[in-house]
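User: Show me sequence and structure for the first protein, then do the same for the second.

Assistant: Starting with the first protein.
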Amino acid sequence: MARPQKYAEGEAPYSLTIRIPRELYEEAKRYVSMRLPMTLSELITDGLRLRLKTPADPRDIILSDDNTVMHELQEMIQTAVQAEIGKLHTFMGSAVDALTRAPVPESPAEPMPERAYDDNEGEGTTQEASQPTAETPAESTTKQTGIPPYDTTRYYLGKLCPSGHDYHGTGQSLLRRHNQRCQECERLGKRAAYAAKRQTTA
């Protein structure tokens, strides 16, 4: 058990018993717990001193001739403002320091679009590689419009090729699924290559 504190003659404090609302008591306890080692007695003492030094009615400050009260009130307000500014400065400094130390995420590289080359148009000509994953409307109507059937697992009707090979009046070219090239262009290309080979060997 702690020994009672000894005071000089005439300096011993008075012990008081006061009644306050329970809600005010709980709020005072929370305030003291956040500002240790402050005690509840110190909080009540500070409140009494502030109350006694500060007029209850703001109009009393204007009408009062006691400049000491005004000066002390200004000092208290200035001290409180400076303390809050110091806290804000410390918080902002910590936040800026954390942001400067955080690694900058690298942006992912944009994927290059796939392009297919057309042998009949030369090296500089390309076609967009947009292989469909489902049957196109032109394919689903081949039987109804009388278009000659074709293997839909290997071919599909797509954009008209640069050579203008129109597949039986559909306004589209028959393209291979694995390379998106015109089937008629490939057929004519192979025929020309075979004829050139025969002329070379003859």
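Switching to the second protein now.
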Amino acid sequence: MGKDKSNKEKIKMFREIDPTRMAANMAKELNITRERVRQILNDLGLPTAFPKPRRICGNEGCNNKIKRYTDTAKFCGRECFKAQSMGSFICAYCGKENTKYKYLIKLQQSKYKNMHCTHSCSSKAYWANKKKNSINMRMGWPVYRNLPSYQVAREKT
């Protein structure tokens, strides 16, 4: 009985310090079963379980609750997932704004200098650049292939 009383006092102290502490953690520290901790909490009139915190959608501007039952869900629905994972870019040839998945934009930007909205814009930009380089070669001007535009401007002056 004396040992049980000290466990009651310890459990009461644990709950005063951290009201959301799990019974399993208290049981492990006191070297008793989780069921015994639950019984002591009931005797003391303290709650044995707490509701899970409300999880909110990860999309900016959306404050909806996540309705899925899995712990890994980050968005309230497919629309929010798509809105969060899409990014926009401006085509280097035609200047139109386009949308693609953010991971594709990042992948393309890591490999290429320019991004194009369609294959035809990419081809037109390629041939326009090739034509400009061939004119430069005929005129005896240097051809700058791998230098960014700010370095080309600095070398011409």
